[in-house]
Write a structure and sequence with these properties.
heterodimer; A: alpha/beta; Glutaredoxin; 2 domains; 5-stranded mixed beta sheet; 40% helix; B: mainly alpha; Helicase, Ruva Protein, domain 3; 69% helix
């Protein structure tokens, strides 16, 4: 065997190795999957709630344990200016529906604890809230930013996604529609 | 007199050396807290803007994160402990240089592997080429020493 084919084989192996690197990188990107569309099952997750923001729930809750209830899942962050606009509305509507089979979950995204707790205190939030550790929930729901709110029906199916601050009227309309089913 | 002068010179040199060693600015060795915050922030990514360094990012998120770094340093945590906190909370992608382990390990290893394969192949090819040249020279030398070949060459020269 002469030297030339060996060099060609080496170059080919190098190309294969580089292609492998790109394949791994693409796989890492695609692992995030697609945003759950309305009508598709809500990806399950476990959320550790902040102390003082459990509303009678255990420290760690699973979404699948809330089957049978309407779930309003709101992604937020203390640094998010748009989130301020809906904070009062979320709390007011939670208080209105908390005894009617509706659970609100605040998913704190890319936040540090002190500002997050200060934010919750500032807006007198009482519904369950916890940090999305390593953005696992955000990746599962493929959010593009905050605020984003997912409405999940009693069967654990995503029914609607809102990528903007919500008003009280909007929240009530969406919850009433799910409760009426 | 000369001995006294030399002795004085030696003593002065010794004093100068001691003064240099003892008189080094101690403050310069201990970075101020803000410098340490900046140094740690340089090793983290901005969580909301892709590819931007936390230290140089002016967003509200980054301001909060820098405040968190400073708060943790003030409680006596080391730089590594602060970095570990951010990695545990936000994942390895928060680090400017993610750990060379787990699913991303092949990304670091593949280019080195490819370079090694290429170098090995190139080395083997060069060795084969030089070995082939050596064999050809040896064959030529053997032919020159063969009496039959020498006689044949002499015959050819005579006829020519």
């Amino acid at each position: 065997m002469s030297g030339k084919p060996l060099i060609v084989a080496g170059i080919l192996l190098g190309i294969v190795a580089i292609a492998g690197v790109f394949a791994i990188a693409l796989n890492l990107v695609s692992q995030q999957g697609a945003r759950p569309k309305p009508g598709s099952p809500a990806p399950d997750f476990t959320l550790t709630l902040y102390p003082g923001y459990r509303a009678g729930l255990p420290e760690q809750i699973r979404l699948s344990d809330l089957r049978g209830k309407v779930v309003v899942m709101n992604f937020w962050a203390s640094w998010c200016v748009e989130c301020y606009k809906e904070a009062d509305a979320l709390e007011a509507v939670y208080r209105k529906y908390k005894d009617r089979g509706v659970i609100f979950l605040g998913i704190d995204y890319l936040d540090t604890e002190a500002p997050a707790l200060a934010y919750l205190k500032q807006y007198d939030v009482t519904y369950p809230n916890g940090l999305d550790v390593q953005q696992r929930i955000a990746r599962a729901y493929r959010i593009t930013g905050v605020p984003e709110t997912f409405f999940i029906d009693r069967n654990g199916v995503v029914r609607e996604v809102t990528i903007a601050p919500l008003t009280e009227a909007q929240l009530i309309a969406k919850i009433e529609a799910l409760l009426a089913e | 007199m000369l001995r006294f002068a030399l002795h004085t010179l030696r003593l002065s040199g010794l004093c100068f050396l001691v003064a240099c060693l003892l008189g080094r600015p101690v403050i310069a060795q201990v970075p101020a807290p803000d410098e340490e915050t900046y140094r740690i922030a340089k090793q983290l990514n901005c969580p909301t803007c892709a590819g931007r360094n936390l230290a140089d990012c002016p967003t509200e998120t980054c301001a909060q994160w820098k405040a968190e770094i400073k708060a943790q340093l003030d409680t006596g945590k080391s730089a590594q402990e602060v970095l570990d906190y951010f990695q545990a909370r936000f994942g390895p992608t928060v680090l400017q240089e993610p750990p060379k382990a787990g699913v991303t390990a092949p990304l670091w290893a593949a280019p080195v592997g490819a370079a090694l394969i290429f170098l090995l192949a190139a080395g083997a090819a060069m060795w084969r080429a030089s070995h082939r040249g050596e064999s050809a020279n040896v064959a030529a030398a053997d032919a020159a020493e063969d009496p039959f070949v020498a006689a044949l060459e002499a015959e050819v020269r005579r006829d020519g």
